[in-house]
Structure formats: C-alpha cells, structure tokens
Design a protein that fits this description.
2 copies of one chain form a homodimer. Chain A is built from 7 helices and 3 strands; from the N terminus they run ααβααββααα. Chain A is mainly α. The interface between A and B is large, with 63 and 63 residues. Chain A binds a DNA duplex (30 and 30 nucleotides) through helix 4.
DNA sequence: CTTTAATTTCTGTAAAAACAGAAATAATGA
DNA sequence: TCATTATTTCTGTTTTTACAGAAATTAAAG
C-alpha cells in the first residue's frame, strides 16, 4: 500500500504540489517529489502514475526535472527491469541541492548579463552616470552575495549546523556588532 | 528622456523582465521594477505605460505588487496631481524586503501546514512511523531555518556586511570548524 | 537477432496566467 | 457640488505553461 493512501500523507503531497508552483516547479514535479520523499521504498514510474493519477509522460518529465535538481536519483530493484526512484531524505542535503540549482538557474545568468552590460557601458559615454552606477552596483552586490554563498556552502555540515544554532550570536565576533 | 531609450538600460529592463518570471513575479512586474530602479526621478503610471508599452491596468497591478513587496513606494511630485513611484535603490534593503516577502508567501504557509499535520499525525496510530518522522523532521528543519533567518535579519546592516566579507572565515569561531 | 517491455519525445489539448481595454470608482480642484 | 482627471477593478482575449495520449526510441531478455 502506498503512502498516498494515508490522509496526512496525501495532504502533504497536495500541499507540496501547490507550493511547488511558487517554488519554480510545477504541481506534478512537486507532487512526485513529495510522494518519493514520504516513501520508504523506491518507486517505479508506473506506481507513481497510479498513486498521483498522472500521465506516464508527465511523470517521466517530472522525474527528469527532479534528477536535474539532484534531489531524486534512479536506483535498481533486483529482479525488476524497470527504473525505480528514490528522493533525498537528508534535509540538509536536500536544501543544499535545491539552493545550488536555483542559483544556477536564477542568479548566475543575471550576473553574467550584468557583467556584460558593465563592459559595454564603460564605452558608452552618453549613458547617464546613475544608470551605469546602478547596474554596476547591482552586479557587484549579486556577485558579493554569491561569493559569500559559495564560501559558506563549502563549510562542512556540522560547522553550518553550529553556526545556525548560534543564530544572531555570531554578531559577537564582529567589532561593534552586538545587536 | 526616459532611461529606457538607452540600449543598455533597455536590455537590463528586458532581462529583468524575463528573469522575473523565474523569481515569482511576472514579466510586467519585473520590468516596471527595473525601469523604476534605473530612473533617477519618480515616474507616474502613464509614463511607465509609454516607456514599456504596457496597458494602464497592467501597470497599476504591477505597482500594487511591487508596493506589496515593499520595494516601490508612492511619492508626490509638487504641482502634479498624479501618483508617482520610486524604487528602493539601496540594494541591501531591496534584498531584505524581497526575502522577507518571499518567506511570508512561500515558506510560512508550509510551516503552518506541517505543524497542523504534525498535530493530527500524533493521534493517528496506524500511520507508518517513517511518514510521521519525515513530515515531522521537515517541519523542524524549516522552522529552524526560519528562526535562524529571523535572528540574522535582525542584525544591523554593518554587522551583516562584515559577516559577509568574512565569508568562510566565520568558521574560525566554531570549535572544529576550520574548513 | 528478434521480440517485448520500458522510457522518452513529440504533438495536440486543456488549464492557468498574463494582459489589454472598458467600465466603475475615487480623488482633486473649480 | 459638479466636472474633470486619475486610479482601480472587472471582463474577455491572448499567451504561456502544464499535461495527456500517441508515436518513436531505447534497452533488455530470450
């Protein structure tokens, strides 16, 4: 029996599906993820179709998407020639994978474009200074943020967890940062 | 003359509009924001319509949206009875306003739902343990993250900037976190 | 190599979102 | 208060995205 038969599990799946549309995925992708996340065993595509009442092709695309995010992976079940799928259940890894992929899709292209515009603006003499300034500062700001992100992301999980637990207390280490 | 006449400014606006669709806004909203961001003077709705070739109603809704995010505000230009609008240009404040609003729209409802499910699952005895576990842990995880966010968000800007500049060096303050 | 099953890609349809224009409301000034 | 102008809300259309079903491809087993 699939987890989707339990009311709370189903409600989780449906909620996840709705929120998914606000998270840059579509309903089907998010529902498939939720189902796999709650399942304690690998599921094949056909089982997912039946559990969620989705077309086979739709599930196929959703699985491809989720694998693109790195939060679902194919696995093999012995004695079964079909592909099976499992979701990342370690929440920290899930979070890291999602942020990394969203940065790649949603931030990196903009930084690249702003860098390009900066180049071209340097040559264009009749461009108002404030336009050059604002685009330039936006580029710097986003670059700084992502540099910080890349650095922090490289820390080991236990360090990050400790930092999180400290919360605002990290400010103690900054001169004049005691608030 | 409006900034949208400069090729680099226009390209910025168009790019911002496209990316906006990946950032939870629609093209019009993001374009209006980009235009105001680059403008050095308040613009009225009609001027925005002409600059971006959008319908008046569309601009009206975009402005409402942007004010909802807290990144655009109405302002008054003396001798003109029309509303005028300006965008937040301080990038740090812009970033903070956007993250706060996205959290409110995209995270808080899910935490609330997970909390509710947790309650109900406690009573439901035939629910598989791993389902209860995973939903429960997801709730904890998201709560922990947002608590951390709320705390750090409360620090003053200068402290946050210092922390950002430190990057991975914050790990120095964590026992055994020197990587 | 051939047959069969599994998976993906393609194409048309359905659903959702964005948008324009019109109508209604609200605000300002005479 | 009335007339005028600005703004928002509503309604229908267009565009985009999601999705189902069919066709094509790929992979496995005999």
């Amino acid at each position: 029996m699939g987890v989707e038969k339990y009311p709370e599990a189903l409600e989780f799946i449906l909620h996840w599906g709705e929120m998914g549309t606000h998270w840059g995925a579509n309903r089907s992708v998010a529902q498939v993820h939720a189902l796999l996340f709650l399942s304690d065993k690998p599921l094949d595509a056909e089982a997912i179709c039946e559990a969620l009442d989705l077309a086979r092709s739709n599930v196929s695309n959703a699985l491809k998407d989720l694998q693109g995010y790195g939060i679902v992976r194919r696995t093999h079940v012995s004695g079964d020639r079909r592909d099976h799928f499992v979701a990342e259940t370690e929440l920290w890894d899930l979070f890291m994978a999602i942020t990394a992929e969203r940065k790649r899709r949603e931030i990196d292209p903009t930084i690249a474009k702003l860098g390009e515009l900066k180049q071209r603006m340097a040559a264009n003499k009749d461009l108002p200074a404030h336009v050059r300034d604002r685009i330039g500062r936006m580029h710097e700001f986003m670059s700084t943020l992502t540099t910080w992100y890349e650095q922090v992301r490289g820390l080991k999980k236990s360090t990050l967890v400790s930092l999180m637990k400290m919360g605002a207390k990290v400010a103690r280490f900054i001169p004049g940062g005691k608030d």
